[in-house]
């Protein structure tokens, strides 16, 4: 009986030493982005319902924007992991700000679940950046896009920014999924 206890203890200690021998990727340490690799179906349905409701009630004039924020010539998979996280954090800042705007009561109700989910994702991303790469400088591609975003916030109408953010919500979710991967994503 004592021998079985010793073998179990030896097994646990060996497993622990193997875990230490194979360190986790940088963003996983103290970071919970892995939960965004595969989104839960009810979250996706809530996003679809919100987007459809918005598109059904949106005025045609709100669709016209001078800045095409979500039309990029590059793919987030081309960015480093810290750049991907910065990109998604900026996208989520925009989306959550737009979803937080006053709206008619039916849309306010429809957007509550997506807003809560996206706000939590944004907070998780901020935590990851603080622990993984607090002084990271964005690449040229990302820096250019961030400047374009700042310009759009100053020059575009709120309706334009809201429409862009909601219409491209699934692109933001794909970018979030991409940021959750430690290696290259598809």
Automatic annotation (TrEMBL):
PANTHER family: INTERFERON LAMBDA-2-RELATED, INTERLEUKIN-28 AND 29
Lineage: Eukaryota, Metazoa, Chordata, Craniata, Vertebrata
Gene name tied to this protein: Ifnl3
GO cellular component, one term: extracellular space
Signal sequence range: 1-21
Provenance organism: Dromas ardeola
Coiled coil: none
InterPro entries linked to this entry: IFN-lambda_sf, INF_lambda
Keywords: Antiviral defense, Cytokine, Secreted, Signal
Descriptive protein name: IFNL3 protein
């Amino acid at each position: 009986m004592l021998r079985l206890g010793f073998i179990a203890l030896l097994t646990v200690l060996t497993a622990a030493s193997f875990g230490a021998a194979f360190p986790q990727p940088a963003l996983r340490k103290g970071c919970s982005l892995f939960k965004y690799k595969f989104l839960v179906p009810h979250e996706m349905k809530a996003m679809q319902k919100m987007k459809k409701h918005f598109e059904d009630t949106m005025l045609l004039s709100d669709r016209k924007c001078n800045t095409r924020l979500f039309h990029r010539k590059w793919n987030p998979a081309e960015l480093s992991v810290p750049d991907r996280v910065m990109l998604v954090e900026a996208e989520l800042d925009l989306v959550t700000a737009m979803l937080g705007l006053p709206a008619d009561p039916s849309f306010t109700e429809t957007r509550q679940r997506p807003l809560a989910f996206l706000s939590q994702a944004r907070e998780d991303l901020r935590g990851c950046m603080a622990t993984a790469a607090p002084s990271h400088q964005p690449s040229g591609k990302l820096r250019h896009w961030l400047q374009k975003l700042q310009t759009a916030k100053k020059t575009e109408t709120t309706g334009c920014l809201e429409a862009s953010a909601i219409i491209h919500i699934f692109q933001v979710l794909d970018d979030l999924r991409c940021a959750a991967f430690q290696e290259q994503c598809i």
